[in-house]
Amino acid sequence: MLEILKTKGAQQASLAKVEQLLPKHEHPLLKAIFEGIKEYVEELKEKIKDDPAPKICCSDIIETLFGKFKYRLKDSSKITDLALSIPFYCGKLDAKNLVKSFEEVTYKQVKTWNQQKEGT
Questions:
Q1: Which residues contact 11 (CB under 8 A, 6 or more apart)?
Q2: pLDDT digits over 41-61, tens only?
Q3: Is the CB of residue 32 less than 8 Å from the CB of residue 45?
């Protein structure tokens, strides 16, 4: 199950495969574990309902992204500016998403966020 979510992310096809792998078990502890996994899968399904693009749901992937981020950091002293670039490592950057980002986030919001983070 973890291999599927790690390599494919949370998307309809990968979540369906995970559900197929969940066994039925009568032992109370195992039953509770598998029910917990099923609840997690249901939460992921809810999160992808409006956006079918694969979602990161594995700490290994997040750690890899942070490694890329740290690699870029060695060439820059402003971590807050680089923090804004982390989403570029997630998924596919296309014109539609870029336009959406520019339409929904203003320069003033980014500047205010940056000033707040520098003050903390």
A1: 48, 52, 53, 54, 55
A2: 888 888 888 877 777 776 666
A3: no
Burial environment of residue 61 by CB neighbours within 10 A (0 to 12, 13 to 18, 19 or more): middle
Instruction: Tell me the one-letter amino acid at 55.
Output: K
Question: One-letter amino acid identity for 53?
Answer: A
H or E segment to which residue 118 belongs: helix 107-119
Q: Which residue type is seen at 98?
A: L
106/103 Cα distance (integer angstroms):
7
* Helix, coil or strand: residue 11: coil
* pLDDT level of residue 62 (50, 70, 90 thresholds): low
Whole-angstrom distance, CA of residue 58 vs CA of residue 52 = 17
Structure tokens at 88: 């570029």
pTM, two decimals, is 0.47
